[in-house]
Amino acid sequence: MTGKRNAMEVHDLTVAYDRKPVLWDLDFTIPEGLLVGIVGPNGAGKSTLIKAALGMIPLASGWVKFFDKPVEDVRTEIGYVPQRESVDWDFPTNALDVVMMGLYGKLGWMRRPGKTERERAMTCLEHVGMADYAKRQISQLSGGQQQRVFLARALAQEANIYLMDEPMAGVDAATERAVVNLLSELREQNKTILVVHHDLQTVSDYFDWVVLLNMRQIAVGPTKEVFHDENLRKTYGGRLTIISKIADAVARDAPQGLR
Amino acid sequence: MFGIFDDPNALWVLTGTTLLGVSAGLLGCFAFLRRRSLLGDAIAHAALPGICVAFLITQTRSLGPLLVGALIAGLIGAFVIQVIIKRTKLKEDAALGIVLSVFFAFGIVLLTIIQHSGAGNQSGLDKYLFGQAASLIGSDVRLMAICAALVCVLALLFFKEFKLLCFDSGFAAGIGFRPGLLDGILMTLIVLAVVVGMQAMGVILMSAMLIIPAASARFWTERLGTMIVLAAIFGALSGAGGTFLSTLAFRMPTGPLIVVTSSVFFTVSLLAAPRKGLIAKGYHLIATRGRVQRENVLRSLYEELEETGPGTRTVTIASVAGRRGMNESNLRSTLERLLREGLVIREPDGFRLTEAGLEAAHGVVRNHRLWEMFLMYEGQLGADHVDRDADTIEHFLPRETVGELERFLEIHGLEPRLLPNVHAVDGIDKAEGGTA
Amino acid sequence: MSDSMIIILTGAFVAGSCALLGSFLVLRKLSMLGDAISHAVLPGIVIAFLVTSSRNSLPMFVGAALVGVLTAFLVQFLSHRGVQGDAAIGVTFTTLFAIGVILVSHYGSAVDLDLECVLYGEIAYAPFDVIFIGDQSIGARALWVNGGLFLLNLAFIFVFYKQLKLSAFDPELAAAVGIPVTAFHYMLMGLVSVTTVGSFESVGAILVVAMIIVPAATAYLLSENLARMIGLAVLLGAISSVLGYEIASHLDCSIAGAMASVAGLLFSLALLFSPRQGIVAKAMSRRGLRRQVAEEDVLLWAARQRELISAEGFTMHELRDTHPDEIDRLARALSRLIHRGLLAADRDGFELTTSGREEGVELLRRHRLYESFLGDKLGYDTDHLHDPADRVEHYISPDDTTEIERVTEYPDRDPQGKPIPPSQKEKEKEKEREKESS
Asked: How far is it, in rounded angstroms, from Cα B42 to Cα B95?
C-alpha cells in the first residue's frame, strides 16, 4: 500500500452551541484505515464533533478537512450514521427505502432512485443480515434491527470515511458483535471509521485509536498509548472549573459566540 | 339533481375545489410528516392583511394581485414565526398563535377600514374570510389549475429530498442537502397552496384541507408514495363531494361542507383502516385475549396432569380456575370452545384432554417454557432477529437458538414430558427424547 | 358610565381573563389548543342558542364549556391513537368549526346570530345591551358578564396557583405529589371555553385568541417570575384594550381587531426592546463587545510593540502592515481609545497615555497568564497557545484572572518564555515597600 493519507484533519476547532462553546481548540489528525473511538462523558461534545466536522453546525473557529479537502468537496466520500433516536421511526417507509436514502447524496438534486439503486440497497441490507426485512415498516423493527438498517444506509454511501454517532447504544449483544465485525471488515478495505462510543470496557478491544474528549481534547492516538488511567481520569474527572466559567462568560458576552 | 354537470359555472367550481383538494392533500403529507400541520393555519390567517393591502394599492379585486399580496404576507408570517422561535424563549406553539391572531386582527382592521370607506363595500374581500366557492369563475379556476399543477410537479420533483427532510433532516444535512433551503421551498409551496385555496375555502377552513386528508391517508399505508396518492384522492373527493353537496341546495356554504366531507373520510379511516384503525385494533385485542385465554386453559389442564400424575386424566373446573385465578364464566366459555375444537371431552366430574388436546397443550406449554428460558438467558443468546409478529417461538428465533433453549429447559427440569403418543402410565421416562 | 368607558372596560375584562388563562397555556405550550377551543366552541354556541333561543344564558355557557372540554378530549384521544399532536388539533377544531359555520348559515336567520359577529365581535354595541332589574337599568350586560368571568378566572388562579404552577412546570412531579393534573387540564380548557363564549359577542373569537396568547407571550419575554408574568400579562391586555379603542375610534375600524393589533404591536416592541431578551438589546451588547474587543486588540498590540522594540509610539502604517485584514475595525477603535484618554495622537502617529499603557500591560498579563494555563495545566503545545488565547482572553474577568494565576502558581514567564508583568496591585505594593525602605 502507498503511504497513508490523512483521512481527517482537525485544526484549532472551536464549536459553540447557542454561543456557549462546547468544544475548545481541538487539533488532531487521523491517518487513513483506522477504526477510531470517540470517547468522553455525557455532554463532552462527542456528537458535536461529528456534526461540526460534517458542516451541520457552524464552526466558531478552525477547520476540518477530509483527505486534505474541505467537507463540501468530499461529501460523497463521507458516510454518516446519526443517532438512532434522531429520527421518527413511525415514518411511513420501509427498511429498503431507508437504505436507499444513503444513495441520495450521489444522485444529487431531483433525480429519482431507480432499479440500480434498489439493487445496491438490497446488497447492503444483505450485508448486515437484514435482507428478509427489506419490506418491513421501520417501526416494526427492533432497536438492533433499526441500527443495522442505519449501518446498511451508511454502507450504501460507499464512503471512504464513516462517522457514526453511538451505533452501539441500546442494541443487543448480537447486534453489537455484528456492528463490530462490520466495522473491522470496513477497515480491512482501508476505510476510516470514527465511532462515538460510550462503553469504556470495550474500547481497547474495538478501536485502533481513541479520541478522548471532554470539551477539550484530552488525548488522541493509538489506544495502547493513550487509553490509560491518567488520561481517563482527566477525561472523566469533571469539568475544569475555569474552562466552564470562561465558557459561560463567552456565552453571556461574546458577539456571535467566538469570532 | 345532477344539474351541476350542465351548468358551466358549477363545473368550474367543481374543478377548482377538486384541484385544490389534490394540491393541498399532497403538500399536507409533507407538512404532516414534518410536524408542521398547523403552519398552514397560521399562514392562511397571516395572508389576510396582504390581501387587504393589495386591494388598497391596486383598488381592484382581480385575483392575481390579491394572491401576490397574500403570498407576500404569508411568507412574512412564516418568517416571523421562525424569528420568534429562534430569537426568543417562546416555543413553536406560541409563535404560531401570535402570528396567526395578530396578523389576522390587523387584517380585520384593514378590512373594516376598507368597508367603512364606502367603495370597499363592493370589494368582496370578505369572501376570503369564509370562502365563497360559488364565486369562482373561469379565470380563477385557470389560475388555481396552474398553481395546483405547479405544486404537484414541484412536490414530485423534490419527492426524494422532501422525504429525506421529513424523515431525517440531520442525515440530509450530513450528505449535503440543505435542510434550510428545502424547508424554505416546502414552506413556499404550502403558502402558495393555502393562498390559492383561500378564495374558495376561506382563511380558517383552508388549513383543514392541508391537515385532514394527510392525517386520514396516514391510517391506510406505511409507504410515503401511497400516502401521498391517497391524500390527494381524499382531498379531491372531499373537494368534489363538498361542492356537490352544496349544490343540492340547503343553502349551505361550500367550504364547511368540504371540510365536513373530509372529516367523514377521516372518521372512516380512524375506524376502519386495516391494522391502524380502531375497529381492526379492537378486533385484534379481542382475538388476542381469546387466544391467551385458550392457551391459559390448555396450560392449566396440562400442568394439572403433570402434578397429579398421568393416571388421572379428568380435571375439575374448580382446580383449573384456582390455578390462574380465571373467572368461571370466562373459563366455561373457553372450555366450550375447546370442546368444539375437539381438544377436550366432558366428563361427569370435569373435563379431560383428548389425544389432540394433549398434543396442543404440549405445544403451548413447551412454547411458553421456551419463552421463559429465552427471557432468562436473553443476554447469552445470539437472538438479535426478534420478529415481533411471530407468535410461536420457532418463528421468532433461529433454529439453533431454539435448540439451545431446549437444553436450558432440560437443565432446569422443566421440559414438558407428557406426550400424546406415549401413554400415560409409564410415559415420563420414555418421553425424554421426544421433546427434542 | 360613558359608552366608550363601557367598551374599554369590557375589553379590559376580556383581556384580563384571557391573560390569566393564557399565561398558563403559553407556559404549558398549549397556545394552539387555546386557539382550537376558541374556534371549536362555535357549534356549542349555536346549538345552545337554538335550544334556549337566548344569549348569555347559563345553558349556553355550560354547552360551550362542554364543547371546549370535548375538543381538548378529542385532541388527546386522537394523539393517543397515533395522530400527532398538531394534526390532532387541526383535524378537531377545523371540523367542529365547519359544523358551526354550517349550523349558523342554516339557522342563522332564524336565531339572529351573525357569523362575522361571532368571529370578530361588535364591541361597539356593548353599551346598548343593558340588563334591567325590575325597571332599573344596572348597566351593560357585556360588562357584567365579562367582569364576572374575570373574577371567576382570577379566583380560580388565586386558589389553585400552587397546583397550576407545578403542573405547568413539572407535570410528572405534580402527578406524583397527588395533584390531579388531568382534571386541572380540563378545568383550564373549560374556563378557556367559557371565557370565549362570554366574550364572543363583544369581541369575537379572534380577539379572544389574540388576547389569550399575545399578552401572555409578551409578559413571558419581559419577566422571569410567574406571578409577575401573570400580572404583567393582565396589565398589557388592559393597555391594548384602551389604546385599541382609541385607535379604532380614530380610524373607524373594528375595535376588537385594533385591540388585538395593539397587543401585537406591544409584543413586537418587547421582541425588539426587551432589556434582556430583546433583539435590539442583544445587538447593542454585541456591538459594544465588538468595540471593546477591537480596543483591547489595539492596546495589547501597542503594549507588545513597546515591549518588543521599545517603541513609545506607532503609526497608522505599522498598524496596517501588521493587521492588513482588520485595519478598519482597529482604526475605528483608535478614535474611541483617544476619546477615552488611553491613546494620544500627534502628527507622527499615536502614543499610549499612562493609563493606556497600564491597561495594555494588564491585558498582556492576562493573555500570557491564560497561555500559561493552557500550556502548563491543559498540556497544549507551545506553538498552539496564541490563537486560542487570543479568541478567549476578552471574556476573562479579573476574578477569573486571579483564579488562573493561583492555579498556574503565579508564573513570571509564559510557556514561550515571555515575561508576565506583575499586576497593578502588586506594583503598588512594591512602590509602598520601596517607600517604606527608603
From this structure: 9
C285 touches chain A (CB under 8 A): yes
Closest-CA residue of A relative to B381 is: A174
Domain coverage including residue B302: 283-424
B97:C98 CB<8 A: no
Mutate to test the interface with C, among A26, A59, A245 (most CBs of C within 10 A): A245
| Total of domains in chain C | 3
Q: What share of chain C is helix, strand, coil (3-state, %, to 5)?
A: 75, 5, 20
Same domain for C50 and C188? yes
Closest Cα in chain B to C103? B252
Question: Residue-wise pLDDT tens for chain B (436 aa)?
Answer: 455 566 777 788 888 889 999 999 999 999 999 888 888 889 888 988 998 899 888 887 777 888 889 889 999 998 999 889 888 888 889 999 999 999 999 998 898 888 877 654 555 677 777 777 777 777 888 888 888 888 889 988 899 999 999 998 888 888 888 888 898 888 888 888 888 888 888 887 888 999 999 999 999 998 999 999 999 999 999 999 998 888 886 667 888 899 999 999 999 999 998 888 889 888 988 888 888 888 888 888 888 777 776 665 677 777 777 777 677 788 888 888 888 888 888 877 778 888 888 888 888 888 888 777 777 776 565 544 444 444 556 656 666 777 777 787 777 777 777 766 544 434 344 334 333 3
Going by C-beta distance under 8 Å and a sequence separation of 6 or more, which residues neighbour residue C361? C303, C421
Range of the domain at C149: 3-277
- Residue identified by cell 514561550 is C416
Task: Clarify whether residues B23 and B164 are in a common domain.
Answer: yes
- Pick from C78, C81, C207: which is nearest to B105 by CB? C207
CB contact under 8 A, C90 and B211: yes
Domain count, chain B: 2
Instruction: Please list every residue in chain B whose beta carbon sits closer than 8 Å to the beta carbon of residue C83.
Output: 215, 218
Taking CB atoms and an 8 Å limit, are B218 and C277 in contact across chains? Answer: no
Neighbours of chain C (3+ CB pairs under 8 A): A, B
Rounded Cα–Cα distance for residues B401 and B416 (Å):
18
Complex ipTM: 0.81
B317 and B265 belong to one structural domain:
no
Q: Say yes or no for a CB contact (<8 Å) between B102 and C95.
A: no
Would an 8 Å CB–CB cutoff place C287 in contact with chain A? Answer: yes
Do C97 and C202 lie in one domain? The reply is yes
Cβ–Cβ below 8 Å for B89 and C221: yes
Taking a C-beta distance cutoff of 8 angstroms, is the pair B44, B198 a contact?
yes
